[in-house]
Amino acid sequence: MELPFAESWKIKMVEPIRKSTREEREQWIKEAYYNVFQLKSEQVYIDLITDSGTGSMSDRQWAALMLGDESYAGASSFFNLKETIQKITGFEYVIPTHQGRAAENVLFSYLVKEGNVIPGNSHFDTTKGHIEARKAVALDCTIDDAKNTQLELPFKGNVDIKKLEDALQKYSDRIPFIIVTITNNTAGGQPVSMQNMKDVRALANKYNKPVLFDSARFAENAYFIKTREEGYQNKTIKEICLETFALADGMTMSAKKDGIVNMGGFIATRKEEWFEGAKGYCVQYEGYLTYGGMNGRDMNALAVGLDENTEFDNLETRIQQVAYLAQRLDEFGIPYQRPAGGHAIFVDAPKVLTHVPKEEFPAQTLTVELYLEAGIRGCEIGYLLADRDPITRENRFGGIDLLRLAIPRRVYTNNHMDVIAVALKNVFDRRETITRGVRIAWEAPIMRHFTVKLEKL
Ligand SMILES: *Cc1c(COP(=O)(O)O)cnc(C)c1O
To answer: What is the CATH number of the domain that holds 439?
Structure first.
């Protein structure tokens, strides 16, 4: 008999979590104005609001933390981190930052000018924010198939090469660089194939443009390339990472994802010009060049985290857990963005709550229902997050309306996945009785989902 699959680690330290009663949750969510961002973490049993900065560090990371060098300049921790990044990515120049958006802020302060157009595959919200704040345009060139949640494609995060070439022709000298997000977070943690990245590189060369990878989940992307793309089965994750980054001129990184630290980020590049141009902004916004917003101990822990998480076993444990949750949802017929992505399951809320009109925010309604059912905190990635159109001030109902269940790295067991699946099934089973959603009582002009106050209808 074939041995079943199990985690590639064992648990050395535990953190108790607490269940609550439905009555308690009814009260708490009401006090939070039906916005899960307003809940206290003690009011949550299983927290799937994000996989960012919520992972568990390993014993080696905790050990490295104790050896952190907190020297202001020239700390050994910085050189540890730089060497690891060079080894994994092949990029020579490294600028540490306090998180991913800070890396964007520093690099884009140098690269992005008013009137620019930056094509890419579903820019992450802070990436888009940093582009738009500089009066430039983030042009989405993701393949159209990414919007069809039920279509099974191995690389649903890909760039549409035709759309990209049209953009390069149309906007030519307004384009400072092309950005590729690996994995494509907004499309559901969907990977980008090596072939697609090669095609982007070829176009970039043809039009003489640099390529930047937004790399928060580059290791998960490499896992999908190894397991799904022809010709990569026998390569190691580290070999695939090197081959990936050989196709880019530089990267921005949120280390809170695939770096498995609670806080941190960096820029890495082979272009001396980018490094020279960005470094002044690092000093201005983040800190001196050998710490840039990070503690020495955190840079040490990140160096170990990057090394560990570019090993197959660690990634397999992670991706298999997300796939396990997906398989449980399949048993119950619950629709989600297919196939399961790297870091989360995105439940297709309008397909579940068919009676809740879009004006009453189906994905947010489902988020609240799942919390009430079992104290599980997901996150709406849908019509609330989409904000209003800046000109007409109408709600933007054009995109997809999803409940995201983000799985923190090395935190929960498959028993927790079972609880999540069954809680969702219980909501699914009574979906015909859920006919009303929520109404906005108060909202901020932008990024409203964090602070919005809602009323239950
Ligand atoms: C999280 C994330 C960012 C921003 O990083 P922070 O560390 O949250 O500032 C940028 N791009 C992608 C793809 C991300 O997932």
So the answer is: 3.90.1150.10
CATH number at residue 145: 3.40.640.10
**Residue from 98, 156, 256, 257 carrying the catalytic annotation:** 257
Give 103-117 pLDDT, tens digit per residue: 999 999 999 999 999
Instruction: Let me know if 110 is a catalytic residue.
Output: no
Q: Which residues line ligand 1 (CB under 6 A)?
A: 52, 99-101, 124, 126-127, 181, 185, 214, 216, 254, 256-257, 265
Do 275 and 369 fall within a single domain? no
Residue range of the domain that includes 45:
22-51+312-456
Per-residue model confidence (pLDDT) at position 391? 84
One domain for residues 192 and 296: yes
pLDDT band at 398 (very low <50, low <70, confident <90, very high): confident
98 and 146 housed in the same domain: yes
Is the pLDDT at 147 greater than 90, yes or no?
Answer: no
The answer to whether residue 384 is domain-embedded is yes
Mean pLDDT of 319-343: 97
Domain boundary, last residue among 308, 330, 365: 308
The residue to mutate among 183, 254, 256, 286, having the most atoms of ligand 1 within 8 angstroms of its beta carbon, is 254
Confidence class for position 436, pLDDT limits 50, 70, 90 = very high
Q: pLDDT confidence of 304, banded at 50, 70, 90? A: very high
Average pLDDT, rounded, for the chain: 96
456 is catalytic: no
What global pTM score does this model have? 0.96
* In the predicted structure, residue 390 carries a pLDDT above the cut 80: no
- CA distance linking residue 44 with residue 56, whole number of Å: 18
Statement to judge: residues 298 and 357 lie in one domain: no
| Spacing, Cα 326 to ligand 1 middle (Å) | 24
